[in-house]
Model the fold of this input.
Amino acid sequence: MSAERRRPLIAANWKMNLLKADAAEYCRDLRRGLAAPPEVDARVVIFPSFPLIPVVARELVDSEVEVGGQDLHPEERGAHTGDVSAPQLADAGCAWVLCGHSERRQNHGESDEWVGLKVAAAARHRQLTPLICVGETGLERKEGRTLEVLERQLLAALAGGPGPFALAYEPVWAIGTGETATPEIAQEAHRYLRQRMVEELGEVAAAVAPILYGGSVTPDNAAGLIAQPDIDGFLVGGASLDPQKFLAIIRCSG
Ligand code: 13P
Done:
């Protein structure tokens, strides 16, 4: 299936940034921008940090923009200080959740198997769609292990048999570095991930799962990336903190 048949999905990962007032103003700017012509045909999701979710959900109510959590614990409740569960995210207004972002894998020692449990927990809850993040480090790419790493992360994430999901290819060496993957490098990884999904899940399930690119996406490089047949959208970090930049990325995608 070609990219033309998958609606672009453009997501903002705010990471640990913004305060309530900034978040509210941002959402108002975003709504105004999306309401202005020409009409945008893209799905848009914001991933704020946990304390900002209620503000963002309130500001975006009755809009097409969706909200997601940046992480979740595989269990539904219990003694897990500092964690949040799938039911809590859904209750707060989230429709999405990030699973396996490289900053969680690296800074919190999250294993491939742990990410798989999170994906399964989101899928079990049904109201939440997991956005599964995979990507190789610079060293792994230098050693020629990119596809092996992507396969290992993908298969572990899907081990619990997820329902609907989206994937984000985020090469670690491109995150927050200003060194974006070229459209050709990103397309090669996306095509590989699509092929492996077809082998694991079949043509139909693989064809409907969007594969986003993440890693130093800006309004300047977004058009070249989205033109690739297997790049269905973006997971944007730094540039998503400025609503005008995020809107520009949405506009060149949808
Ligand atoms: P940057 O866009 O800042 O490189 O971050 C990418 C990312 O990690 C999104 O999840």
Remarks:
- The chain has one domain: 3-253.
- Residues 20 and 60 are 14 Å apart (CA to CA).
- Residues 3-253 form a domain with the TIM Barrel fold (CATH 3.20.20.70).
- The pocket of 1,3-dihydroxyacetonephosphate is lined by residues 13, 101, 170, 175-176, 214-217, 235-239 (CB under 6 Å).
